[in-house]
Amino acid sequence: MSGLDTIAKEFVVESRENLDQLEIDLMALEGNPSSRETLASIFRTVHTIKGAAGFMRLPKLEALAHSGESLLSRLRDRVLVINPVITSALLALADCTRLMLTHVEQTGTEGDTDCAAIVERLARVGEGGGQTRSQQPDGDPPPEAEAVVQPNASEGNRPVQAGSNVRVNVEHLDKLMNLVGELVLARNEIIQFSAIQESSALLNTSQRLNSITTLLQEGIMKTRMQPIDKVWNKLPRVVRDAAQYCGKRVRLEMEGKDTELDRTLIEAIQDPLTHVIRNSIDHGLETWEKRVAAGKSAEGHIRLRAFHEGGQVTIEVSDDGGGIDVAAIRRKALERGLITPEQSRGMSEPEAMNLVFLAGLSTAEKVTSISGRGVGMDVVKTNIEQIGGKVSVQSQAGVGTTLRMRIPLTLAIMTALVVTSGDESYAIPQVNVLELVHVEAKEVRAKIEVMCDAAVYRLRGELLPLVWLDGQFTAGASDTTRARLVGRLTECDAVNIVVLQADDLKFGLIVDDVSDTQEIVVKPLGRHVRGIPIFAGATIMGNGRVALILDVPGLAVRSSVLSEAREKSAVRSDVSIEADPEPKQALLLFSGPDDTRMAIPLSRITRLEEFSRASVEHVGGRDVVQYFGDILSLTDIATLMPGTRARSRPSLTTASESFQVLVYSKDGRQLGVVVDQILDTVEERLVNMRPTTRQGVTGSVVINGRVTEILDLDTLSADVVAAPVSEHARAGAEV
Amino acid sequence: MVGIKVEDVQEVTSGSELTHVPLAPPVVSGLLNLRGHIVTTIDLRRCLQLDSRPADQRPVHIILRSDEGCVGLLVDQVGDVWDVGDDDFEAPPKTLRGSLRELITGAYKLDGGLLLALDTERALAFSSGEQT
User: Fold this and answer.
1) Are A306 and A265 a contacting pair, CB within 8 Å?
2) In whole angstroms, what separates CA A657 from the centre of its chain?
3) Most exposed of A404, A451, A560, A663 (fewest Cβ within 10 Å)?
């Protein structure tokens, strides 16, 4: 790599960081227009970019930064005062700079990005196109959309300390974390080994090793911890853009910015969090007219709260909007056939509330052809569950909605309860364990009862379904006839019950013996055994043997504890869907190229949008639109699909006013797929799927009497999504 | 007598205790702790649909490198390392049927008998294919 390349790379990385800071500062300045310090920071950032651009011989970028600087100097000289028009212009500058940086990174030149319009806009605003100080009206706040960030007083405005930090490549950290994991295992082995040796010297040394390892493990974990602010600092911009998009006035409050969690988790919560906030603004908060009529402040409040609780991190997103209309949800779920009338009747208020996480259910009252089809909340739930977290929602009509996400601190090392069954040890994640119950041999017959072919235990008056761990290990349906169960209970000695929680359900797992709780290092299973639903991974025990980690939800499904209960409560989740041999899938139907019918699993789509033709910008050979403050690149489905005949009327160039887009996100990047027409959403069992050789198509099925191809966007969009630099990856690239 | 390309072999170990995996495909004999790495082991006898190994015979693990990390192959015993020439190689005869035909690339005609060349990729893929 030549020296210049290295400099260019550094320039791109540093400039992006500067732009991140610029956005944060701009948001802060909107909240506190008189802060000279913030203004000076913004000025410095733009000035740095301008200087570097000059050095790198990027004249357009230099000119752009220069015009920004001119505007800022008028702000600094107090000729102008910051207002939403100026902020928007400066944000546009940041967006345009980002585009150019991407170009610089890929080609080494600033490309043909047209920034003249933004230069002109900055100049116009600077000449007083925005409101000057003297013109600013007093009294009533301007009715236009705006967002204000209210940092928590104790946390805001803290000077950033520089100089005492070192940049470390994330790969190194991951390697260190792996090594520490190995060390923890070796330590466990040594301790067990030294316990059986009669050497006090060895015992002493191994105890020291023990404490040092623990300290080292904590230390390394700490280096991987990042404050949640890393994700949150992007949100003010998200809120501002979404607020403008929806024409609402929103105030964002954040509490607990310093709450730390593992960086892999930080990355994982970014998308769900953004989605939830957009949802709150779009559907949760009312328009300001409605708010005033309801006696609330004109400005809607969104409150973010993060805190540690019982070894987990809780993140809350609350709004003071209209709340969720539970009756409407019930009605809609019934209409859509997601629940039966009997199920609806048997459902409590909170249970019905959680229907919002079902695929195919929208919380928005008005369902248009584009929005309100209920894409989204189920994706949030799936994403959070993937990292071992939980999502719940609380809402009060007219008062607001709170969405609570509970996620673990880290994924690599966890506390587990070690149990034995037969000759083998198994680890059960501690988060799933509620309590342990030991039933003495003479009490077994009295306390464990058999109903038909199921054993139950009365736990403080509640019936706890019981499952034998070894019974789950035999292939096929487990043999649980009443006679056999009674026989088992008669012959066994004392019974150890581990009371487990899977989703909302409790059940008791009967094991041979319960050892203790241990810190275990989670290791993935090889391909031969990966598909077994009752195991989540494996770990190495102190004696050097491999122990399997039980997957409690998987266990519940296999033992049919969960699926039966699910039928009762009717909240279908992905877990119970897996248990169903031919699960119904929610599919989005649309017309594809060459007038074919196509469908895609609804769970793969984050949003459906309609854009006006005028909003499309052409940048660097791509069609893009501005989308909630991000840049969404658009790709026509016809160009994605190999082997389609030349389209007679490419949808991006047709004369119609607007076009429909499926927003699809992968690895933190979003891609807009332009389709001819979105037709409907259906629930279908994908049986009799005909395999196909066509690339990007999973197969074809008959839906509503027409042959429909099921699209595999992951394969199709692989190169399109991978091409631009992921902002996501970059955010995680430094600690 | 079965031969494996030396370059596919990472190491040979014995005596490690295996952890049985319930519900795994029958060819999987268990999980092995290889210096802190968890390695799935496949029983070659079961791959080739042979009878089970006598209980008193201690098997040997051949650790193979594969695209997805190491995989162990459980065999009766490890013989020698031989240089074999392409001249002695012959594709499997048409009459050969069953799983053996799927799993070998051919045979080397040696003085002491035939050395069957095991297609390790196929052997590992074959056994994982059963459960998917």
Assistant:
1) no
2) 33
3) A451
Contact B32 A546 (CB under 8 A): yes
- The overall longest dimension of chain A from CA atoms, in Å, is 91
- Phi (first) and psi of residue A448, to 5 degrees: -105, 120
* Cα gap A551→A529, rounded to integer Å: 13
Q: Helix axis angle, A200-224 relative to A170-196, nearest 10°? A: 160
* C-beta separation of A508 from A466 below 8 A: yes
ipTM: 0.83
One DSSP character per residue, A302-363 reads EEEEEEEETTEEEEEEEE-SS---HHHHHHHHHHTTSS-HHHHHT--HHHHHGGGGSTT---
Number of alpha helices (DSSP H) and beta strands (DSSP E) in chain B: 3, 9
CA neighbor of A308 nearest in space, from A264, A252, A258, A273 = A258
- Two tokens, residue A330: 């019930």
Place of tokens 């052997």: B123
Report pLDDT digits (tens) over A201-237. 888 888 899 889 888 887 887 787 888 888 888 888 8
A440 at B interface, C-beta within 8 A: no
The structure tokens listed for A548 are 């399997």
Cβ proximity of A416 and A516 under 8 Å: no
Which domains can be identified in chain B, with CATH numbers? Answer: 2-128 (2.40.50.180)
Q: Is A476 at the interface with chain B, CB within 8 A?
A: no
**CA–CA separation, A596 and A700 (whole Å):** 11
> Residue with structure tokens 């957009």?
A278
Query: Under an 8 A CB cutoff, do A528 and B68 touch?
Result: no
A521 CA to chain B: closest CA distance, Å? Answer: 10
Rounded CA gap, A25 and A314, in Å? Answer: 27
CA distances from A265 to A353, A409, A729, B36, B48 (A): 26, 8, 13, 25, 44
| Stated length of chain A | 735
- DSSP conformational letter for A504: T
In this predicted model, what pLDDT tens digit does every residue of A550-587 receive, in sequence order? 888 778 877 765 444 444 443 333 333 333 345 567 78
Low-confidence ranges of chain A (pLDDT < 50): 1-3, 129-146, 150-162, 363-375, 477-478, 562-581, 645-650, 722-735
Helix (H, G, I), strand (E, B), or coil: what is residue A396?
Answer: strand
Q: Looking at the complex, does the CB of residue A245 fall below 8 Å from at least one CB of chain B? A: no
Kindly list the residues from chain B whose CB atom is less than 8 angstroms away from the CB atom of residue A529. 21, 24-25, 28, 31, 40, 131
Q: Which of B19, B36, B124 sits opposite A545 (nearest CB)?
A: B19
Cα–Cα distance, A632 to A267 (Å, whole number): 19
Nearest residue to A88 (alpha-carbon basis) of A130, A51, A55: A130
| Residue type at position A403 | L
Q: pTM for this structure?
A: 0.49
